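#struct-pred
JK: can someone run the complex with LPXRUNBV? inputs below
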Amino acid sequence: MFILKAEVQFDLAHYLSNYEGKCSNIHGHRYRLIAKVKGEDVKKEGQLRGMVEDFGTIKKALKEIEDYFDHKLIIEDDEIGQDFIKRMKNSPQPFEILTVPYRPTAEEMSRHIYHMLKDKGFDVHEVELFETPTNSCIYTEADND
Ligand SMILES: Nc1nc2c(c(=O)[nH]1)N=C([C@H](O)[C@H](O)COP(=O)(O)OP(=O)(O)OP(=O)(O)O)CN2
Ligand SMILES: [Zn+2]
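RT: done, structure tokens with the ligand placed:
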């Protein structure tokens, strides 16, 4: 089996609702996203001969994910999140807020990104998301060996 690896990074603000400690405040990370796409064999002919997938195609999809998250604030769609968004609507500054149906941990975000890539048609092996230079989560699915 072949496993291709590509990486992007993005800056994103978040907070963890009902978390006790410094992460209950809004703060930011430079996230590092490493995606692995698998293939049993390389293509036999045409433009992709000798390749599982063009790195450029993977990079383009990762860039779209980078743009989706980059320089935004991600907020869980819970009571605190909805209240926050309501208050921000009165602000003269049109902040870009991403509302998600999960607590934005490295675990939930890596699972979300895994499915974003799958929905784009990639045979995803795993997604690793670094929240800090030393902490990361790897998301994969059981049938994925
Ligand atoms: N399993 C998880 N644990 C934590 C997550 C997470 O996504 N999954 N997230 C956080 C916070 O977002 C936090 O910002 C990370 O905090 P921390 O590990 O404290 O990282 P720092 O680099 O800020 O640590 P210092 O030791 O203070 O430098 C918490 N836990
Ligand atoms: Zn954090």
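RT: quick notes.
The longest helix spans residues 55-69.
The two ends are 9 Å apart (CA to CA).
JK: thanks, will look after standup
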